[in-house]
Amino acid sequence: QVQLAESGGGSVQAGGSLKLSCKYPETVSYYCMGWFRQTPGREREGLASRDQDGTRNYADSVKGRFTISRDNAENTLYLQMDSLKPEDTALYYCAAHPFVCDSDIARDTQFNTWGQGIQVTVSA
């Protein structure tokens, strides 16, 4: 059974905003949670991660535009996406693992729990 559930995707014009949500079970402890995306013919790209202690990590491609946050009381991880570009079009995934996040999400191979993915489409 899927333990992570993304929502909030959709279509938006370039320059617009979207906010993704990821619900996780309150009975499961995930120290590190993050967001990834993937498009056909391209490797999965780590975008952002956040530890339970509040430490945040971002990929260069989204720094200054995307913001990751986590509401432990609501068991929800968020990704606020602003100033969206057509190249942001992808299937977005929520992921988690029980260890400390790597400061470079691209090198963090510990993610072992994944959502089903949600489509984000940005038109020019």
How would you portray this structure in words?
- 0% of the residues lie in helices and 47% in strands.
- It has 124 residues and is mainly beta.
- The strands form two sheets. Strands 2, 4, 5, 6, 9, 10 and 11 form a seven-stranded mixed beta sheet that branches. Strands 1-3-8-7 form a four-stranded antiparallel beta sheet, with no helix packed on it.
- β4 and β5 (45-51) form a beta hairpin.
Short recap of the structure:
The protein has 124 residues and is mostly beta strands. The protein is 0% helix and 47% strand. The N and C termini lie far apart (37 Å).
Task: Describe the secondary structure blueprint for this structure.
Elements: E1 5-7, E2 10-13, E3 18-23, E4 32-38, E5 45-51, E6 56-58, E7 66-71, E8 76-81, E9 90-97, E10 113-114, E11 118-123
Parallel strand pairs: 2-11
Antiparallel strand pairs: 1-3, 3-8, 4-5, 4-9, 5-6, 7-8, 9-10, 9-11
